Amino acid sequence: MERDDLIEYSLHGHHDEAKGKEIRSKIYKVTILLTLITIIEVFIGASIKQSSDWWTTVKIIFILLTLLKAGYIVMVFMHLGDERKYLRNVILIPYFIFVLYLIFIALWEGTAVGKVWETMWQ
Amino acid sequence: MAGHSAQLDAKTLWGGKESPFQTSYGKLMMWFFLVSDALTFSGLLIAYGFTRHNAQDAWPIGEETFNSMPFLGHGYPLLYVALMTFILIVSSVTMVLAVEAGHRMDRKGVTKWMIATVIGGFFFLGSQAWEWSHFIHGSEFGKIELSDGSVAIVKGHFGEINSFTVLEAGKKHKVGAVIKEDLMHQFQHAAELGHLEAGKIHLADGSVAKINKAHDHDMKLIIKKSGKLYQVGGKEIKGKKAEQLYYESLYSGEKNRVIYGANMKQNEYGPQQYAQFFFFITGFHGFHVFSGVIINILILLGVLSGTYHKRGHYEMVEKTGLYWHFVDLVWVFVFTFFYLL
C-alpha cells in the first residue's frame, strides 16, 4: 500500500540549470584552491629542512592548510555546508569531542610513555 | 542539499511529521558511518603521531624516503605523493560534478562524470601499488650498520654494477665466466648474508666472483641510531669518508649489516614501527579507495541501466559521492601527517 504521509527528501536536492551553473563555478574555484594549497605544501616541504629553525612554524602552517583543505572538502564537496544546522552539528560536534580528547590523551600520556621507552631501549 | 528548501520554524521541524534534518534516511546513515570511519582513521593517525613523537630523530623524514618518480628515478622529493593527492582531488571533483548533474536529472552528465571518477580511482590505486612496490624493494644502498654500532641511511648515486667475473669456480660457473644477469639482486642478497668481501662476491653456487662496478657519487650517510662515534642528529657524513665507512661494513663479511627495503620485521628507513604504520595506514586507506571504486562501478551500472532515472532522483550517486569524498579527505590528512611532517 502506498503511504502518502512520507516526505521524499531526496527530491529537495533538485535544481535548475541556472543554479547548476552557479554550483559548478563554485566547484571549479574550490578545485583550483585545493590544488594551489597542495602545491604550496609540497614547495614548503621540499625547500625547508626539518632541522631548520623554521620547522615548528612550518608544522603549524601544514596543519592549518590541511584543516583548510579538509574544511573545503567537507563543506563544499560533501555539501555539509548546505545541510541544516542540526545535521551539521550532529556530525561535527561528536566527532570533535572524541578526536580532541584522543589528541589530548595522546599528548598527555605520550610524555610519560616516552620516558619509559627511553629507559627500555638503553 | 536540503538547505534551499523553504525556511521552516522549529515547531514544524521538531513536531514529528518532518525530519528535523530534512534529509533522507540513507544519506543520514551514510553520514553516521563516515563519522565512525573518520574516528578510526583519526585513531590510527594519532597513534602514528604518538609513536613518531617518542622516536624523535630516529624517525625517517618524508622527503628523504619518498623522493622517486616513475621513469625519472630519484631526486624528486614528495612530487609523486603530491601527484597522487592531485589525482584523488580531481576524481573527487568529477564526483561532485556527477552529483550536480544528478540534481538536474542529467543522465548523460552523471554517466560521463562517474566514468571519469572511476578512472581517477584506478589511477590512484595504480600509483599506490607503485609506491608500495618501491617502498618494499627499497633503495640500492639500503640501511647500514657502521663499525661503531651506529645505523645510517644512505643517499647518493649508486654506481651501476656491470658484471661479475668468476675467479673461483663453483657448481654452476666456471673460472673466467662473465655473469651479466640479475646482478643487483644477487649483490643485495649476498650483502644481506655477509657474502661480500673487498670487491668480491660469493655466489649462491659456491663460486667467487669479482664485482665490476662503477664508482658511486655524492654519497651521504644520515645517522638514524646512535653508536660510539656517530650520533643521531649529528653532522651528515659525506664523500670519501662516507664511502669508506659504507664499504667497510658492506664488505665486513658479517650477516645483517645492511637492510634493503621493508617488510613487517625490519626496514631500511627507520624504526620497525615506521613500516608497520606505513603498511597499515596507507593499506587501510587503499582498501577504502578500492571498495570505493567498486561501489562507484556498481552505481555507474545503475546509472547506465536507468534505475535512478526511473526513481526520479540520483540520490544514490550523492551517497556514494559522500563516501568517495571521505576517502579524499582521509588522504589529505595522511598526506600531511605521513609525508609532510
Features:
heterodimer, A: mainly alpha, B: 341 residues, alpha+beta, Four Helix Bundle (Hemerythrin (Met), subunit A), 2 domains, five-stranded antiparallel sheet
Characterise this structure.
By secondary structure, chain A is an all-alpha fold. Chain A has helices at residues 17-47, 55-77, 85-121. Chain A has two domains: 16-82; 84-122. The termini of chain A are far apart. Chain B starts with 9 loop residues before the first helix and ends with a helix. Chain B has two domains: 18-138 and 273-340, Cytochrome c oxidase, subunit III, four-helix bundle (Four Helix Bundle (Hemerythrin (Met), subunit A)), CATH 1.20.120.80; 143-260, no CATH class. The longest helix of chain B has 34 residues, at 272-305. In chain B, the strands form three sheets. Chain B has a five-stranded antiparallel beta sheet, with helices on one face. In chain B, strands 6-5-9-8-7 form a five-stranded antiparallel beta sheet, with helices on one face. Chain B contains ten helices and twelve strands. Chain B is 54% helix and 14% strand. Chains A and B meet through helix 1, helix 2 and helix 3 of A and helix 2, helix 4 and helix 10 of B.
Rounded radius of gyration of chain B (Å): 27 Å
Record field, number of beta strands of chain B? 12
Q: What's the CATH class of the largest domain in chain B, please?
A: Mainly Alpha
Write the element-wise H/E pattern of chain A from the N-terminal end onward: HHH
Spatially, the strands of the biggest sheet of chain B line up as: 11-10-4-3-12
The SS-based structural class of chain A is: mainly alpha
Question: How far is the first residue's CA from the last residue's CA of chain A?
Answer: 74 Å
Radius of gyration of chain A: 22 Å
What's this model, at a glance?
Chain A is mainly alpha-helical and 122 residues long. Chain A contains three helices and no strands. The longest helix of chain A is centred in the last third of the chain and has 37 residues, at 85-121.
